[in-house]
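Incident log, structure service

09:12 report received: a user says their structure output differs between two submissions of the same chain.
09:20 pulled the input from the user's history:
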Amino acid sequence: AYENANYRTDYIDARGRLDRYGGQAYEHFQNTAGLNLDWLMVKDQNIALSASRTDMLPRDETFNDQESVYYSESAMYQWMINPVVMAGAGATLNQYSYTAATNRPDTMFQTYSVFSTIKLTERTMGAASVGYSMVSLPSSYGDSAGVAVDNSGMVGSLSIKTELDRDLAHELAYARAIQAGFSSAYELVDKYSYHIDWKRKAALAVSLFSEYNKSSQSDSLLGEYTDWVSGMTISLPFTSLVALELSTTYSVRENKGTADSQGAGVELKNSYNTWSSRAGTSIPLMSRDRNSAGFTTYVEHVERSSDSDVLKYSRDIFVATVTYTHQF
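09:34 re-ran on a clean worker, output below:
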C-alpha cells in the first residue's frame, strides 16, 4: 500500500503539455493512494493486481475543469514460457469524475491487451502488445461542435532494442494509446521514437534521440496536433565526481485542427518551433550515513519562433541550486 501527496507548479501550454518557459503556471495538489499485489503462482507464472485513487485539486480557478477524482484498477498475468520468451495478458479500468466542471463528462476507459517480450538474439530484445480500448461516455455526450466521435479502437506497441557493442545500443519503438485528454474527454495518441546511446565507463557519453507524437482529440474544435522533438546530450567527465553536461533539443509543434476563434486560443491555432541548448555541471558536496548534499548549476538559451508574434520569445537562463537530502 502507498500514499503519495504533493503540491507542485507545472508550466503548461494550452493542451496541457509541459512548456517550462512559455507556458502558464498550473499550481495543483495531487494525492494518490493505492495498493499493489503480486502473486507468484509457480516459478514461471505471476499475477499482478493494482488499484488506486487520485484526487486532483487546482489552486487557480482558471483550471477548475481539471478538478477531478480518478480511479484505476488493473490485473495482469505473466508467463515465462522459456528463457527467451515471456507472454501475458492484462486488463485496465480507469474512471474519471470531474467534480467542478459542468462541461466535462464523466469518462470510463477499458483496455484489454496481450503482450510478449522475446530475446531475438544474444544482443537484441523485442517487445510487442496489442489490445482494444473502449471509452464510455454519457449517452447525451457530443463534442462542442456537435460532431459524432468514435469511442473505441485498437491500441498496442512494438519495440526493438539492440546492443550494437558493449558501449553502443539503440532502440526503435512505436505505441498507440487512447487516454484522457487535458481539455477533451479523451485523445488518441500515436508515438514513434528512436534512441541511440554510446557510453564508456569514466569517459565521454553521447545520446541522440528523435520522437514524433500525433494526437487526435475527441473534441473536433481542439483539433489534431503533432510534436516532433529531436536532440542530443553529451556528458564529459572532468574527474570521477564532476562532469560537464551539454544538451540541445529542437522541437516542432504543428496544429492541424479546425479550431475556430471562439473555441480555441492562439496556441491551439498556430504552429511554433523551439530550440533550447544547455551547459552545466553538478558537484557532490557531502555524502554521509543517510545525509547527502549537492550543487548543480547550468546556463540555458531558449528560442521560440512562430507565425504568431504572441508565441515568439527568447530566454537566457542561469540556475544554481544546492540540494540537501536526508533518508529517513
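09:41 both user submissions now match this output. Likely a transient worker issue. Closing.
09:42 reviewer note: Helices lie at 266-269. The chain is about 0% helix and 70% strand.
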